[in-house]
Every structure is written in C-alpha cells, then in structure tokens.
Write a structure and sequence with these properties.
Elements lengths: L2 H18 L5 H8 L1 E4 L6 E4 L5 H6 L2 H19 L10 H23 L4 H28 L1
Antiparallel strand pairs: 1-2
Helix pairs in contact: 1-5, 1-6, 5-6
Amino acid sequence: MKLGGWVVMLVAMVLFLTLVGIPTTLNNVLEGVGMNITATGGTPTVVGDVESSDIWDWIFGLEGFVATFVLGSVITLGLYLYTKDKAIILVPLIASTANLFAGTFWGLIMYVKDFNQTWMTYMVLLIFGSLSVGFLWACVDYFKET
C-alpha cells in the first residue's frame, strides 16, 4: 500500500477510536478547534463551539492574517521556483500523522491496561505494532523512490 493510503487509514482509525470514546491524541486537537467528545454513560457526545475556541480567535486575529499572507507568499514563490526535492513538503504531514498514531497507540495501551487483562494489551500491541511497521515501511519506500 502506498503512503497516502496509510495516512488516510491511520487518521480514519484514530478518528473512529476518538468517536467511540477511547482517549486519543486527537482529543487535544479537537478541543483546540472547539469540539469536545465525552463518553459519559457509554454514549459518546460531540459538542462543538468553534466560534468561542482559541483557533477561531487566532485565525481571524492578526496572527491568522499574517500566516495567510506568509502562506500565500510561499505558495506563489513555489509556483515560480523549481525545487528538486518535492518530498520535503510532505514531511510535516507524515510527522503529524506519526505523532497522532503514536499518541493514540500509547493512550490505547494505557486504556486497555486498566482492564487488568494482559492478553488485551498484547492484542493491541500486535495490531498497532504491525500497523506501525507497515507505516514506517511505506515511508521508507516513498522517500527511497523520490
């Protein structure tokens, strides 16, 4: 499977685990955007208030306008300049996906350890360990080709 497929699969899996109510790294990202997912009573509840979040103030504040100007300038310069190594643009996406996946992996291990069932911890380790190896393999294969 190619790297893009791995990124989509891992992010979708983390989003699914978050919506089920398992504590993941994505909870911190969603809280910064103004969404809160709680699993009280066994039923996950999604509450969103984007307009009162910190990111809303950042986007429409001075920092957001400066960031938009800088991003637009970088994209415009990138259209006119030719770089030989285009794979470096994808490094932040790959690193953030790996960080999200590793944080979720660790959170799920801690969540399963609370059940005091060793076999469940080993099953999570087997599944997520295999996915980690596949993702790393796809990263190496992608950067070896470019």
